[in-house]
Design brief:
Blueprint (H helix, E strand, L loop, with lengths): L1 H26 L10 H11 L6 E4 L7 E3 L4 E4 L1 H5 L3 H18 L3 H29 L4 H38 L8 H37 L1
Parallel strand pairs: 1-3
Antiparallel strand pairs: 2-3
Helix pairs in contact: 1-7, 2-4, 4-6, 4-7, 5-6, 6-7
The structure holds zinc ion.
Length: about 220
């Protein structure tokens, strides 16, 4: 049982990382029929949604694409920004999906933003309590506190999932509706977005398992 658990928490994230890289690398080589760069795709979808004030800039680093709700900037990694690929189209549309969520004050996104600073603090603090609680059996209550603090971070990761899936479904709707991709390109764009979503699912699964393991230790001690 222990080895199954270790296998899942160690291999699942690695597999998800491998999958997102290999899928991306495959579809970044396939030129999109629209011939639009990721930057052009992002601009077009933003303008179509009245988001003229949201800027599209180039970011540094492999798959560093993101949307910053504070600065209202869609940042695309160099390849996605400059090249016209199926992968770049999908990723650019996904990031704009977050900008649209922001504009519409999408509930999960708002909740995630409110939770972010709290989760940041509790996640960092939780380890101190957990480590002391684990080492010193007599201080099981500290372990309990650590678990509660850690649960806030896990909740944050769980809330990230609907935000990510929703951005991807918005992305697909937009690129289809605006005729940016053709029918035969649709499954390819979907594959890129699903692979990216998998990394969030894997990270969340690991976090939930870690939390459960600590809860089991905590409750066994209390018996
Ligand atoms: Zn996203």
């Amino acid at each position: 049982m222990f080895w199954v658990y270790m296998g899942v928490i160690m291999l699942l994230p690695l597999y998800a990382q491998f999958k997102v890289k290999s899928t991306y690398n495959k579809y970044v080589r396939i030129r999109s029929t629209s011939g639009m760069t990721g930057a052009e795709v992002a601009r077009m979808i933003l303008d179509h949604n009245g988001l003229h004030d949201v800027k599209v800039v180039e970011s540094k680093g492999f798959l560093s694409d993101h949307y910053n709700p504070l600065t209202k900037i869609v940042a695309l990694s160099p390849q996605n920004y400059h090249e016209a690929s199926v992968a770049g189209t999908a990723v650019a549309a996904h990031e704009v999906g977050h900008a649209i969520q922001d504009k519409e004050a999408y509930a999960f996104l708002r909740f995630r933003h409110r939770l972010a600073p709290v989760a940041n603090i509790t996640s960092n603090a939780s380890w101190i309590f957990i480590i002391i609680g684990l080492v010193a059996q007599s201080m099981n209550s500290l372990l309990g506190i650590g678990i509660l603090l850690m649960a806030v971070g896990v909740l944050f990761q769980i809330v990230t999932l609907p935000v990510e899936f929703n951005a991807s479904s918005r992305a697909m709707n937009q690129i289809v509706e605006l005729g940016i991709i053709r029918n035969e390109e649709e499954p390819h764009a979907k594959k890129v977005l699903s692979a990216a979503a998998m990394t969030y699912v894997a990270a969340t699964a690991v976090a939930v398992l870690e939390l459960l393991r600590l809860v089991l230790i905590f409750t066994n001690r209390n018996d």
